Amino acid sequence: MKALAARRHDRRAPIVLLLLALLLTGGLYAVLAPTSADAAPKTATADDVATGEKLFQANCATCHGPSAGGTEDAPSLIGVGAAAVDFQVGTGRMPMQMNGPQAQAKPVQFDDEQIEQLAAYVASLGAGPAIPTDDMVDPAQGDVANGMALFRTNCAMCHNAVGAGGALSQGKFAPNLWETSPRHLYEAMQTGPQSMPVFNDATITPEEKRDIIAFINEQGDVSPGGLDLGSLGPVSEGLWAWVVGLGLLIGLSVWIGAKSS
Amino acid sequence: MSTHDPHTELDVRGADGAPQRFEDPGVHEHVHRQADIDPKATKRVERQVLLLFTLSILATIGFIVAYFALPPGETPESMRTSNLALGLGLAISLLGIGIGGSHYIKVLMSNREYVEERHPQRTDDATREIAVQMLKDGAEDSGLTRRGAIIGAAVTAIALFPLAIVLPIVGNVGEDWNVRKFKHTMWRKGTRLAYDPTGRPIKASDLTIGSVAHVQPADLDEAEHPLDEKAKAVVLAIRLDPRDIVSEQGEGWSYDGIVAYSKICTHVGCPVALYEQQTHHLLCPCHQSTFDVADSAKVVFGPAKRPLPQLPITVDDEGYLIAQSDFHQPVGPSFWERLT
Amino acid sequence: MTTTTTSKATTPPSAGARAVGATADYLDQRTGLGHAVKFFARKVFPDHWSFFLGEIALYSFVTLLISGVFLTLFFVPSMGETHYEGPWASMNGVEMSEAFASTLRLSFEVRGGLLMRQIHHWAALIFMAAIVTHMMRVFFTGAFRKPREINWVVGFVLLILGLAAGFSGYSLPDDVLSGNGLRITDGVIKAIPIIGSYMSYFVFGGEFPGTDLIPRLFTVHVLLVPALILALIGLHLVLMVMHKHTQYPGSGRTNNNVVGFPALPVYAGKLLFNLFVVFGVIALMGATMSINPVWNYGPYDPSPVSAGAQPDWYMLFLEGSLRLMPGQAEFVLGQYTVSLNVIIPAMVVPGILFTLLALYPFIEAFATGDKREHHVLDRPRNRPFRTAFGVSLLTAFFILVLAGSNDLIATHFHLSINDITWVFRVLLFVGPWFAFWITKRICLGLQRKDRELVLHGHETGRIVRFASGEYIEVHKPLDAHERWLRVQHEAIRPLEIEPAEDSRGVRRKGYRRDTIRQRLSQVFYEDRVEPVTPAELEAAHAAHGHHGEVEAAPEAHGTPELAGASGRTGGGQHLVDPQDETSPETRNR
To answer: Which residues of A touch B301 (CB under 8 A)?
Structure first.
């Protein structure tokens, strides 16, 4: 009788293990990336510009050139504006650690004050878009419905319908937007970092940008249908149908079909 | 049959008279389950089955309660709660029945195996003979065997009558069947380029280098079937550094570095909308055809063959972008009569 | 068939039993129900978990019908324009079709509507997945052989109808994602030479997208396809009952009998409760996992598109096929455009895959030259060519599915989409051949292992030292049931054909056909491992006959007692321990 009982355990163990493994995978899948902090922009002083220049020479000049005019490895920063610096440095994309298809977001290497000083220095080199005010990027003031209409025409083809991210050619990709701060979203649209096109104030007005931010702000938390499965569309749904749905059903079939001890 | 069947030999004994195959030892002896011999185990299983069915009853009651107590409400949270409560109620109610019943059958219903004979599908010769005779008699009684003309006429009539149903279907479902419409869009000389979806006209000065605008004709709303027209007319206007432009499909079709290309893929018609600013490549998210905007939108990768058609543009007196004409070739996927 | 009447008949029947009896009598007098009961009630069905795969498909279809009826009560199949007003903020005031608006309404405002919608969509995915796994089971066990070829074809048509049902239903909400799917369909239709443009007009009632498509798809989805599926499921089941179910090989299971449980009560009970299990699991999915959230995609508009634009999984292979094809294949003939870059991936590739699938039973029957009925299933290892062929078809399908997901593979594994596409282009040609080769090797290896086991028994890990100082490992012989499973099959040999000319030197008719058949047969059955014969087992034991135990007369061989009971010992490396025989019930299942 004991031998029979042991055999019964054996038969169910793989199913239980499979379910546990699934749960574990699902749990890990749900773990989210760390968020980046927000800081309100202040007006820059001459002091800031001077400190910014020192920071620039120490950290950026190797690639962008001592006068920020650009080299073979990196573009000129004259005229890119404070917004571009705040986005690139504030999301950790710059300074770049290694060459790859594109600069990726990573832990930020400077504190808020240093980023402001760097931005002030680059802004002093030539006129460019400024860092938006908190008011300009406040999702509460945006129209979600208009934001969605604009988002799906201008952004969804790269960033996915709800901003989950998507692939570009040759290993580049459009990142997930759920954890990006409203200010960085605004700056990215404004300056067109890397592969991303520029959406200046004429093509998408500041109010429209705020609407888009309001729409993105709504995504990535609660989905009315339950787990959102990464919001990746039919491929992930198909995968879950096979693994969870058919997996459970086949597991139960094996149980029903197995002889009782 | 001219081939020879290897299987007939399989049961033949070998040369030395030893059997070529083992013999079937016959069905296993019936083994009693724990629940067949141990009354305690039986009781335990009975309790489990009862519990599962009770669970199902409770879940159905829970579903009814949730239906009234948890409306979907206005927020995603309340919708999810409602869906979860109703769904779990239904699932537990169903699984309680399903698993409870299966458990009962597995453990408490007799598990004695029976053996039933099979018979070949083919009917025996006697039956076949009777069947054939019946068919013959039937054919004879019908009197049709001698009247070939009637059979021919009847078959023809029956074969033709569905035309009366098919013709109106085929005739009507294609509306006017004017497939030449594929070759033209609503762009005309002087049509303003407008932002999609707002319909605001675009000034040339709106676009800075690296900018992209998703474009529809400014008079789209006046079209008879706006969606049908939009499906052909959507365009991407992109401003490049004029020094980066390698080639264009026509002389003077761009304006100060602003080029406009059809957004409809020449492969199977997805909107080609992923513009990579640094490489000037346009990528289709459906099948990854890649077009080089700086070089006449030629295909650089993927399943498309032809470049995206270019829309010749210029500016009007007020500085708004306008079309010089319609596209000079059909937009979108290839079709048989495309070049006729 | 034994009867199970007991002495209980003497006790007076209860009120309930009387009522049942009266009802039965009423019905029988009017319908002759007794015949049907006599035919069905104790009909024997074999039991195995893999026989439930078809049931999963059947019950997900039942689930589809139940949830589908619910949805039709609230869905408006119209492309008329409307503006949404409701609880979903990002859609407020947006212009959309009635179809999309009613989908939002039934998801957000109808109580239980979202649940039913999600159940319906999950059930559709499970339906197709269950059909595919059921088909795999039938294929790999050879259940399609005579007399079941027709039922295979019926099942194949059901698969195609399932695709049609899924595709038409997927497009009904009129959202951007499915709309782009329709647009791709339109592009594929237009690529058909000569009639393509007219076909496109036929489908869309004019130019894409038009205003006719959703109502037309609705009729196809809720009437035409389900009616056909229902009719064919009926035929599928009638044929199944007529043929009696196949059974896995094992002791006592032959081509002339069926071993299993009676329809009443065991099989009928399992059949009934399985419905609840399947519906229950799908309901669980609908409760907890979001599927096709169309409000994320928005109403259809020909301009936008989103990353991750893919169809449901069962159409993904077509998407992959389209993605892999290089564009150079398009050419112009005179002044007509021939889009081979679309025709090949969207029509030729699936055409080849599906034709091979549908015709396989007939191809195999032709190559085998076998006209007998088969009711005992094959173990996949015993038919290396078939198993390898099936695995290679599946490999091709799977590579196409992965190719259809290449953008997600690129983002999740940080790879270049262009590189992935190239790898899959190569793999599509290399993968199936490799899969074929390795599967065939594995099958032959498993067969050799079976032979090994039959000839030498199980290793026990017990080492015994003989007086002579020799060490040997004790081997436990297989009991008769275990052995039967491994020797019951026939190793089919390639066909031999009659010569081209008869004795008078006249070329006979049909010789060419026969050479084709012979060549095919060689491809199928050239490599094979024959099952152990009693004589070989004798020889194996004789070779190890350490203790001089001479076998009994040859006539005795092949009886179930052969190895187990006579206590024959292995020599050299083997010693057989009769006391330690495996319990028959633990093996051979």
So the answer is: 169
